[in-house]
Design brief:
Aspartate Aminotransferase, domain 2, PyrdxlP-dep_Trfase (chains A, B), Alanine--glyoxylate aminotransferase family protein (chains A, B), alpha/beta, Aspartate Aminotransferase, domain 1, 3-stranded antiparallel β-sheet, 12 strands, homodimer, globular, 2 domains, aminotransferase (chains A, B)
Chain lengths: 381, 381
Amino acid sequence: MLMIPGPTEIDERVIRAMARQMIDHRSDEFRALMKSVVEKSRKIFEANSSDIYILTASGTGGVEAAASNLTQPGDKVLILSAGLFAERMAEAFAAYGANVVKHPLENGQGPNPVAVKKLLETHPDTAIVGFPFNETSTGIISRDVKEIGRICREHGALLVVDAVTAVGGVRVPVDEYNIDVCVAGTQKCLATPPGLALVTVSKRAWEKIEQKKLRPPYFDLVKYRHFMERWETPFTPAVTLFWAFDEALNIIFEYGYERWLARHAAGAAGLYAGLRTYGLEFYAGPGFESPIVAAMHIPPGLTDTAIRETMKKKYGILISGGLAHYKGKMFRIANIGLITRDKVVNTIFALGKTLKSLGMDVDVSAAVENTERELDRNWPS
Amino acid sequence: MLMIPGPTEIDERVIRAMARQMIDHRSDEFRALMKSVVEKSRKIFEANSSDIYILTASGTGGVEAAASNLTQPGDKVLILSAGLFAERMAEAFAAYGANVVKHPLENGQGPNPVAVKKLLETHPDTAIVGFPFNETSTGIISRDVKEIGRICREHGALLVVDAVTAVGGVRVPVDEYNIDVCVAGTQKCLATPPGLALVTVSKRAWEKIEQKKLRPPYFDLVKYRHFMERWETPFTPAVTLFWAFDEALNIIFEYGYERWLARHAAGAAGLYAGLRTYGLEFYAGPGFESPIVAAMHIPPGLTDTAIRETMKKKYGILISGGLAHYKGKMFRIANIGLITRDKVVNTIFALGKTLKSLGMDVDVSAAVENTERELDRNWPS
């Protein structure tokens, strides 16, 4: 059982959707598929005025598409960082010649509108503000994206958001929040096999993109826009993944997108209730605990490896460790995609048994009970 | 039936290989898959000293990986062009600041060693020479890659080859030919669904890559090398396509790689015999006719659309038209991947009937007979 922050488990229907003979990507059949996928994605992003593009690349590729299309050399880019994925974003902009100003966020906090306003006053020449909607590496969610979007627009800065793990798990309404370029992965809360990235582009972002004369061809969004006029991609797309994604979106809309989001919220409520009962400490400060992935300090005396190996060997549940300089210092449990009550309950149960077997004094029954109570209270009907 | 130059038809076993529940890409299971795929790919490229990387991207992305990793701003890059894919290569290098010198090849010719030698004497500061092994847009194969590789090495220039449609159809021994960076697609002669690109890197190429301080993160080959030490990719790979590719390689090696190449050669012999019987004119000059894709002028009085639509509607066979400025001026028939005798024969038969129905005086029986004779003579036992 995968309880890692992607790739996630996939519905049988999605698996079957890929089991087809190949088609020409310059055919009416592919164009219909593209149209279907884009129109459904539009609902996910609540995008009326923004465009949506689908790249054959991982989420990191999508973030690079944002950076490489928007950045003029020397552009001041403000990155609000609470972990590794913000650092990657900074790296992508720097690779295309941006003058990156990194603003480390206070321990456990997401981006703060008051701080952003001050930063933009200190750096009035900021061209772009960027941060992850959900910082997967530290389990911190950005709560105030709408307000930050308003502030960015007020200051004439574009807002770029890495929503790779957020989209499908929480609302990411790009127009309403003034997100100029938003990047999503399909292999996270949208429960599709990995290999595609979604990129939304606002009208303001287009103005900046069009000013660039030279864009790296593979991620050139102007080319994408041109081919999208006939529902095609400039280069050969990963056709099987388009089939998979289309079916994953069918499943989401049959279930109801609001309910899909509510299910993620309910899963998070149950998960956190159990984790708190074990007395685990989160990297996220109060109110910033990510509903997508919980990141916990390793309890004193225990090791990352012991926890994860026990979970895997004894209970068949895969959870994640820390990334980069958090390696060995944290463990992470995701609540992504095909979340079910029993997945959450089994994870809390297995984690309790694991912690206990490693010498920690935890009350497994109480944790399971608290988890179940929260699931019952929150699970969408 | 797909007779287009990619994506190609896929074996049922390859389709089934993807029909699995998702796994963690940081697991022993994925590492074993990666190792398997890389070691088999090594045989395809006859690569002993070169490294092989697998990118989640189309072939164009692979070419961009070559350009973005190798190019220092101002580097002189000599591109030998016989069509659109050479132009794309030039565009990729230019996007990363290269001083691109385009050398248009004489009509219908592949790169010529004598001309390359002269060009390198005229431009002794050439850092990189690049061209497509198989120019898919005009049906021209490069015959003299080995000799050109020797000349490039003699002159201290790196050789970059776009072998996206060539690999798996003809021998592309990267070490023997001194190809420093070779890019292959898996969705062509390797008969895998699209979405992965292969990139080989020679020791000499590494020296140049390491000189660069800033590489675009998504295609950063130094990162790829680092993660390959433990058989992983830096970012989430398209796992389902790795399964597909692994099974496609199993099929190729069970059949025998030499035989697989011989089958492509036999298919080409049969295809060209039929096309010649119809008196069609190739873009490729004598000796440069690509065994991977045949590109023909539209016979006088006929149109591209009429030929392709009739082939599709009456015979269920998809062939391709021209690209960019060849649009409406040519048609192309591919001989890629899962080539069988009956595919070739049916295509020649259907094409003859099509040309006849459009008013051309052709001898369908003679063409089919000539095709079959060549197939019989060349098909591997």
